Amino acid sequence: MAQESPKNSAAEIPVTSNGQLEDSHEHSFNRDLKCSLPVGLGLSETKITSHGFDSTKEGVIEAGPFPGSSASPKSSVISPSSAAASRLAGQGGRAQQKSGPVVLADEVKNPAMEKLELVRKWSLNTYKCTRQIISEKLGRGSRTVDLELEAQIDILRDNKKKYENILKLAQTLSTQLFQMVHTQRQLGDAFADLSLKSLELHEEFGYNADTQKLLAKNGETLLGAINFFIASVNTLVNKTIEDTLLTVKQYESARIEYDAYRTDLEELNLGPRDANTLPKIEQSQQLFQVHKEKYDKMRNDVSIKLKFLEENKVKVLHNQLVLFHNAIAAYFAGNQKQLEQTLKQFHIKLKTPGADAPSWLEEQ
Questions:
Q1: Is there a contact between 148 and 306 (Cβ–Cβ < 8 Å)?
Q2: 62 closest CA partner among 49, 72, 81, 51
Q3: Share of the chain above pLDDT 90, in %
Q4: 236 pLDDT more than 90
Q5: Rounded Cα gap, residues 270 and 259, in angstroms
Q6: CA-CA distance, 214 to 218, in Å (whole number)?
Q7: Could you report the per-residue pLDDT of 1-46, keeping only the tens digit for each?
Q8: Can you say how many angstroms the Cα of residue 220 is from the centroid of all Cα atoms in its chain?
Q9: Which three-class secondary structure string do you get for the chain?
Q10: C-alpha to C-alpha distance for 338 and 342, rounded to whole angstroms
Q11: Alpha-carbon dihedral of residues 113, 116, 122, 126, nearest 10 degrees?
């Protein structure tokens, strides 16, 4: 039997993926296995070639059907070497690290912490203001007073009470006058009905019917003037003056805060000055300056509003008092023309009794 050529022996030596020779036991097992299997089965589907014993290149593994074999290709499981496994593990770790969640460098503010900080500041401010109010009521604490401005505010509040009393009385007069006019109108209708049914007293009932109807008509004219007076005074008291008093309340709150932080700063200045107290004094000085600016601004706003309110009050009340006087005098004097002229002077339109409300087209 002819000996095998060196070329065939070299081709049968399996090579690892790193180009190194396997040990003799594994080499003998692979050679015996190849000789014992028929051609076309198992190992015929995979060819392992090498470029020599001394080659540093890795072995080439070709997967696929061996020439001359009709069997379908089978998938082969190839175990990588330790070096390749370490490279794959490193690449997988880097890929996994890239696909992970993105962490921002800047920390996101917690809304709960912000709310907690706002509550803390509000509680501290409320404590200081409450302590200041109690100190003022007990006569222990000092308060900032603007004598001129405080006097104007006191006069405004006193006038508001008096205007509210006038408004209440005018509304009562309007209600009573409306009832009287309604009664006079009904009485005039009753006299007119009896004038038609009582022939012997036809003229007497007729005179009284005309008189009551004329009084009811004049009363409606006077009622329109009084209601106009009430509406104007109500706007002045419950809107214009009330808006000014709202600004006054804000001014008083700013004054309390200013005095509270002023007292706090004075107490810190009276104490020792060291490394622990100096930052507190500096922070208290900043807060005091902020509330001082707020107090000065609110005091200026109140002064301006009081000035404009006084001018507006004089103008409005002058016209309304003239209207009220002329209307009352003309009504009780029986001067119907003067009463109607008064309403025309102030551009007052009376609503016709029994007239339906205007439609939305007419209002537009």
A1: no
A2: 49
A3: 36
A4: yes
A5: 16
A6: 6
A7: 444 444 444 444 444 444 444 444 445 545 554 554 444 444 444 4
A8: 49
A9: CCCCCHHHHHHHCCECCCCCECCHHHHHHHHHHHHHCCCCCHHHHEEEECCCCCCCCCCEEEECCCCCCCCCCCCCCCCCCHHHHHHHHHHHHHHHHHCCCCCCCCCCCCHHHHHHHHHHHHHHHHHHHHHHHHHHHHCCCCCCCCHHHHHHHHHHHHHHHHHHHHHHHHHHHHHHHHHHHHHHHHHHHHHHHHHHHCCCCHHHHHHHHHHHHHHHHHHHHHHHHHHHHHHHHHHHHHHHHHHHHHHHHHHHHHHHHHHHHHHHHHHHHHCCCCCCHHHHHHHHHHHHHHHHHHHHHHHHHHHHHHHHHHHHHHHHHHHHHHHHHHHHHHHHHCCHHHHHHHHHHCCCCCCCCCCCCCCHHHHC
A10: 6
A11: -150
Instruction: From 46, 21, 20, select the one nearest 33 (Cα to Cα).
Output: 46
The token pair at 51 is 């470029």
User: Which has the closest alpha carbon to 235: 131, 148, 163?
Assistant: 163
Higher local confidence (pLDDT), 310 or 84: 310
Nearest to 205 by CA among 218, 188, 222: 188
Structure tokens, 7:
């070329």
CA separation for the pair 294, 300 (Å, rounded): 10
- Token pair for 133: 């109010």
Beta bridge partners of 230: none
Backbone phi, psi, residue 94, to 5°: -65, -40
How does 308-318 read in b/e, with b if 16+ C-beta sit within 10 Å?
ebeeebeeeee
How long, in residues, is the chain?
A: 364
User: Which residues touch 346 (CB under 8 Å, ≥6 apart)?
Assistant: 225, 228, 319, 323
